[in-house]
Amino acid sequence: MATALAKADPSAEYAARLDHVSKSFAGPGGQQLVLDDITLDVAPGEFVTLLGASGCGKSTLLNLVAGLDRPTTGSIGTDGRPALMFQEHALFPWLTAGKNIELALKLRGVAKADRRTEADRLLDLVRLGGAHGKRVHELSGGMRQRVALARALGQESSLLLMDEPFAALDAITRDVLHDELTRIWSETGVSVLFVTHNVREAVRLAQRVVLLSSRPGRIAREWRVELPQPRRIEDAPVAELSVEITDVLRGEIRRHGRH
Q1: SS3 label, residue 121
Q2: What residues does each domain of the chain span?
Q3: Which of 23, 39, 51, 153 could link 35 by a cystine bridge, Cβ 3.0 to 4.6 Å?
Q4: What is the mean pLDDT of residues 109-117?
Q5: pLDDT at position 8, please?
Q6: Per-residue pLDDT at 130
Q7: Are 189 and 31 in contact (CB under 8 A)?
């Protein structure tokens, strides 16, 4: 029987390691520096949120960690192959919820006889039991993201990369999925690198918040979040730390002339 995902190996040195990573792209005026000298470790089982203003290079960094692109300079290492979840669910509309997950299992090499059972177990994990046969158009936005999360977990990775996966959802649905993600992270021990521009979301979810400056993206500051889980967006300690981080973020935006 396949497992939902590989738990983070506590003996591993890191889940992800970026060592003096920079990234440039060709632009009208020559090479444009997007990320500059990023050094960052994600520990096994750690939940890290990457925060910054739009255009600071957060998604570029996540794509580099995922292996979808290569850094211009520096090196990146991960504990196995990461699983990636986007803002858009990217489900195949001609497949059912369960078959979308089974496709990921097939690509992972899970035997055909085991795929249905494993897909159903992953749907149960994200609290969508019984939705195996539902088409994508029959699912709400929040349900689609749950299926996308189940599919990502089905890749059996110890590192989950999430690029603003809840940004397009309404506030209540997003709040519920925050709870679900926290529960799944706690149950599985998976390492998470979560990109967001929402300060309160970053504080609610993470053990550590990493702030990128405006382009070129550099690590401006980090915060350890020593608040017990589960947390709520409206909790006073969450709000207090969010205000502190927001003030620093505003200063970075002003310093770089981005309004």
Answers
A1: helix
A2: 1-82+157-259, 92-156
A3: 23
A4: 90
A5: 53
A6: 86
A7: no
> How far is 24 from 207, CA to CA, in rounded Å?
30
What is the Cα–Cα distance from 135 to 119, expressed in whole angstroms?
Answer: 15
Q: How far apart are the first and last CA of the chain?
A: 52
Strand order of the β-sheet with 16-27 is: 30-42, 16-27, 73-78
Q: For 99-108, what is each residue's pLDDT tens digit? A: 999 998 998 8
Q: List the one residue out of 142, 145, 154 whose CA is nearest residue 99.
A: 154
Threshold 0.70, pTM exceeds: yes
Whole-number Å distance between alpha carbons of 243 and 227: 15
**Superfamily in which the 1-82+157-259 domain is placed by CATH:** P-loop containing nucleotide triphosphate hydrolases (3.40.50.300)
pLDDT band at 1 (very low <50, low <70, confident <90, very high): very low
d(CA 140, CA 70): 35
- DSSP conformational letter for 185: H
Are 70 and 57 in contact by the 8 Å Cβ rule? The answer is: no
CA-CA distances (angstroms) from residue 251 to 36, 135, 178, 245?
19, 46, 28, 10
